[in-house]
Write a structure and sequence with these properties.
Layout: H1 4-8, H2 12-16, H3 18-30, H4 43-46, H5 50-59, E1 73-77, E2 92-95, H6 97-114, H7 116-132, H8 134-145, H9 149-156, H10 158-175, E3 181-188, E4 191-204, E5 207-211, H11 222-230, E6 235-238, H12 245-260, E7 268-270, H13 279-284, E8 289-295, H14 298-307, E9 312-316, E10 322-325, H15 331-343, E11 355-359, E12 363-365, E13 368-370, H16 372-386, H17 390-397, H18 403-412, E14 417-420, E15 439-444, H19 448-451, E16 459-465, H20 468-482, E17 486-490, H21 494-507, E18 510-513, H22 546-550, E19 553-561
Parallel strand pairs: 5-6, 5-8, 6-7, 8-9, 10-11, 10-17, 11-16, 15-16, 17-18
Antiparallel strand pairs: 1-2, 3-4, 4-19, 12-13, 14-15
Helix pairs in contact: 3-10, 5-8, 7-10, 7-12, 8-9, 8-12, 9-10, 10-11, 15-16, 20-21
Length: about 550
């Protein structure tokens, strides 16, 4: 299996989690529903007292130095403030980058020789221990991103763990295809055949850098972290300065597992920093860095793609997600589904819809024709009904992740006729929380300069088009020119749906069709959905497929005559 070193003794962690790995590999082939990590924070799943223990562990970190011992530490950094109005007061080791890199390269040399079964086994044990710390991590995600607790538990915990395991499964599935050795025998007519022994060794690319984001530090960070680690690469984790804690907890667990497995813990390290410095850029350009995983702004993602030429760069950047409304047989279901999609986590998801294209002449529904203005009002009413109660609204919306969202929200109020204005929401437990409801603005098709840019946050545009054909054409141009991670269509016409599928396949964006139930365009299920296609500007690679992991290692052979 890939490496000579891996064939001698199967690693204990690999054997401990072999069944989970086999199920995960089967799941990525079948693409049905499966998870080993329960998404419900119920005591039935995680045990009595797990929630209280996780909250106590999180609370105990306030105003302390985070317990992470790393080499080359020259000070402390950290100034995270919860969107719920609480200053965390946690500081993290500030490394001397040159000295830390030297330690990482030493650890990489040992890790490289361990082989695929050790790499994968260690990753599976890390994920298992992360799952056991889900409540502690959920509180950290909540108070760095603004996600409401249940969402922070699910998306920041089990769903993120699913994405990490998915990456490990793809890595194992690719590496196990490489045999340890082969006997090569070529007939030579009447003479003796030429016989050679060939041995094949899986060799990692080198040190990997994971650049975390503010909104989903674990869900977006785990695929790159585990894809690189499972293919033998040491990993430097550089969190967003506003969301260090969830990834610091992850790094601490990873280092504990590496130490327990007999490896140098510097295979995984943390580089925390304060806002405003150039740590990400300077790290990404170092010659030792061979892989970069990035989630964030288009400008920063493009800079990495253009300048980090020594590395394989994977980016997930901003995009303009769109909804095409042609007709529907379930108008109330459409409104409920779309209203929830706009409100969930205050529109601060990379998959959240922004532009809703509606023919200016209106749409046909099961109850009759609905005009453009009536559609916009119905959507506004749907959001208002969903968020009428502040307690429920806080659970759906969470909190605003940073001041940039507030500035965009205020600026968007002047862009057109307001169908639904934003309002503040009071949180029952955190009175200083910054919570806002969605803003819905009506625009004309000629306002392309406005709606073909991303307005990240709780901002939606209902755009009057010249008809569904026009809506499809605008959507095609938007994805091709600006990128998108999701596209949605509502229609009772098979022909329109076929046209939408053609657009989605042509420009490379995932399409949802007639979602009126309890599945939302925002959601992406690990082991089943392919998150990102790599076929439009929002992401330069598919973020959940075999190619995402396969380019993180090489196969080097040696051969000799027998």
């Amino acid at each position: 299996m890939g490496n000579e070193a891996a064939t001698a003794v199967t690693h204990p962690f690999f054997e401990r989690h072999r069944t989970t790995l086999e199920r995960a590999v089967d799941a990525i082939g079948q693409r049905g529903y499966w998870t080993p990590y329960p998404e419900s924070p119920s005591p039935r799943n995680y045990g009595e007292g797990a929630a209280a223990a996780g909250k106590a562990a999180f609370d105990g970190l306030a105003n302390t130095r985070f317990p992470l011992s790393q080499p080359a530490t020259v000070g402390q950094v950290g100034s995270e403030r919860s969107p719920y109005g609480v200053r965390l007061g946690i500081t993290y080791p500030k490394p001397d980058i040159d000295a830390l890199m030297a330690s990482v390269e030493l650890a990489q040399a040992q890790w490289r020789k361990a082989g695929p079964e050790a790499w994968v086994g260690v990753c599976l044990e890390i994920l298992d221990r992360i799952n056991k710390a889900s409540f502690e991590i959920a509180n950290a995600v909540m108070h760095t991103t603004g996600q409401a607790f249940v969402m922070a538990f699910q998306a920041g915990g089990p769903h993120a763990q699913d994405r990490g395991l998915e990456a490990v499964a793809y890595a194992w599935d690719q590496m196990r295809r490489v045999p340890d050795r082969a006997t090569w025998e070529k007939p030579q007519g009447r003479g003796d055949p030429i016989r050679m022994e060939k041995r094949f060794r899986i060799v990692p690319r080198g040190v990997a850098l994971v650049i975390g984001c503010n909104t989903f530090p674990t869900w977006n960070g785990y695929p790159g972290l585990f894809a690189s680690l499972a293919t033998g690469n040491a990993v430097i984790v550089k969190p967003h300065p506003n969301a260090i804690l969830p990834l610091a907890m992850t790094v601490r667990i990873a280092r504990d597992v590496l130490r327990d497995a007999g490896f140098d813990p510097n295979v995984v390290t943390l580089v925390a920093h304060d806002a405003g410095d150039d740590v990400a850029q300077s790290l990404a350009l170092r010659p030792e860095i061979k892989i970069v995983d990035f989630t964030g702004s288009t400008a920063n993602g493009r800079w990495l793609e253009e300048h980090a030429r020594q590395a394989q760069v994977y980016t997930e950047k901003a995009g303009v997600n769109q909804v095409i409304v042609d007709s529907t047989g379930d108008f109330k279901g459409l409104i409920r589904n779309l209203a929830f999609s706009l409100a969930l986590y205050t529109g601060q998801m990379c998959t959240a819809p922004q532009n809703v294209y509606v023919p200016k002449e209106g749409i046909d529904t099961e109850s009759g024709h609905v005009s453009f203005d009536a559609f916009a009002q119905a959507l506004a009413d749907g959001v208002q009904k969903l968020l009428a109660d502040d307690a429920r609204a806080a659970d759906v919306l969470g909190a605003v992740v940073n001041d940039g969202v507030l500035r965009r929200l205020e600026a968007a109020r002047a862009l057109g006729d307001i169908a639904l204005d934003t309002r503040p929401v009071t949180h029952g437990e955190y009175p200083d929380a910054t919570i806002r409801t969605p803003l819905i603005v009506k625009l004309k098709r000629s306002d392309r300069a406005t709606y073909l840019n991303e307005w990240f946050g709780p901002i939606a545009f209902v755009i009057a088009t010249d008809g569904t054909t026009d809506s499809l054409a605008i959507a095609r141009d938007a994805v091709a020119g600006h990128g998108a991670l999701t596209l949605s269509v509502y229609s009772t016409s098979d022909d329109v749906i076929a046209q939408a599928i053609d657009v989605a396949e042509d420009v490379g964006v995932s399409l949802s069709i007639n979602l009126t139930g309890s599945v939302f365009v925002n959601q992406s299920a690990a082991f089943s959905d392919f998150h990102g296609t790599g076929a439009n500007p929002a992401a330069n690679a598919a973020l959940t497929d075999a190619a995402y992991v396969a380019n993180r290692f090489r196969v080097v052979q040696h051969r000799r005559h027998i």
